[in-house]
């Protein structure tokens, strides 16, 4: 029963990239100078973005860092020993590419800046829970609205559910079977924000006729060009609702107090 959480981590990481958030902290080139820089880097030439573009990207990254969760925000959880930056197996990367094609998502380099929190977890016997967050700053409020529309779309939910099914089908689970993934969606309260979204993915692993449910929640909101995502997983129970609500509200308040 050690591999299913790994599959959950891949799904969570993919949810981050679909929101326009990379798994690494990153500044993206901006505007014409940024496109020249990207082209120059590809050709082996160094081209420096304009000072104003670099300043905007640095400000966006500072905002992302300020909003993201810290270990002190989740008492009783510790930073995961597994690397947050690990890309997974070749099969997982192939499935992730297929998911992006299914969704029709943009390149991961489209955001102005991206950052994610550490993956925080707590474990007890077979029980396991994890929490993380991610923030991306898009190049315009219109691009942020596209992120919101993507997470609210039925197409994204269908693609993620199918991807999750394929991930679990590739896991090595001795004497176990996995049910199809189900998904529910909603809009959690995010006062003052452009809009919010919530997705809950649920499946059941049956081992020796004993059902073990697990849950993955992707909650988020958009505030102008900023997209903030809270990602949680739980086996055999979801993250407590009060804790999830508290963390979501904390992210909303931090986004309000910052500026991009």
Mean pLDDT across residues: 76
The tally of domains stands at 1
> Main β-sheet, in a few words?
10 strands, antiparallel
- What structural class is derived from the secondary structure elements? alpha+beta
Helix content: 40-55%
What is the multimeric organization of the chains shown?
Answer: single chain
H/E topology pattern = HEHHEHEEEHHEEEEEH
Characterize the structure shown:
By secondary structure, this protein is α+β, with helices and mostly antiparallel strands. It has one domain (4-257). It is built from seven helices and ten strands. The protein has helices at 4-18, 31-43, 51-67, 90-103, 141-152, 154-169, 241-257; strands spanning 26-27, 78-79, 113-116, 120-124, 127-137, 176-178, 182-186, 195-207, 210-223, 226-235. Strands 1, 2, 3, 4, 5, 6, 7, 8, 9 and 10 form a ten-stranded antiparallel beta sheet that branches. The radius of gyration is 18 Å and the shape is globular. It starts with a helix and ends with a helix.
């Amino acid at each position: 029963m050690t591999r299913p959480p790994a599959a959950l981590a891949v799904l969570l990481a993919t949810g981050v990239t679909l929101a326009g958030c990379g798994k690494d902290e990153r500044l993206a080139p901006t505007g014409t100078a940024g496109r020249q820089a990207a082209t120059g880097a590809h050709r082996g030439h160094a081209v420096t973005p304009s000072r104003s573009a670099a300043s905007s990207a640095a400000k966006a990254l500072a905002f992302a860092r300020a909003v993201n969760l810290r270990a002190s925000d989740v008492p009783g959880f510790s930073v995961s020993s597994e690397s947050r930056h690990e890309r997974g197996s070749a099969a997982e990367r192939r499935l992730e590419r297929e998911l992006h094609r299914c969704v029709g998502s943009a390149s991961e380099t489209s955001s102005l800046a991206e950052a994610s929190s550490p993956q925080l977890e707590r474990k007890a016997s077979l029980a396991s829970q994890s929490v993380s967050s991610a923030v991306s700053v898009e190049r315009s409020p219109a691009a942020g609205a596209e992120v919101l529309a993507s997470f609210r779309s039925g197409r994204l939910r269908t693609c993620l559910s199918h991807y999750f099914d394929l991930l679990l089908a590739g896991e090595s689970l001795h004497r176990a079977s996995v049910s199809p993934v189900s998904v529910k969606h909603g809009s959690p309260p995010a006062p003052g924000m452009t809009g919010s979204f919530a997705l809950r993915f649920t499946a059941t692993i049956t081992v020796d006729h004993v059902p073990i449910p697990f849950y993955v929640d992707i909650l988020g909101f958009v505030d102008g060009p900023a997209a903030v995502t809270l990602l949680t997983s739980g086996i055999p129970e979801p993250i407590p609702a009060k804790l999830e609500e508290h963390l979501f509200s904390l992210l909303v308040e931090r986004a309000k107090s910052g500026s991009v």
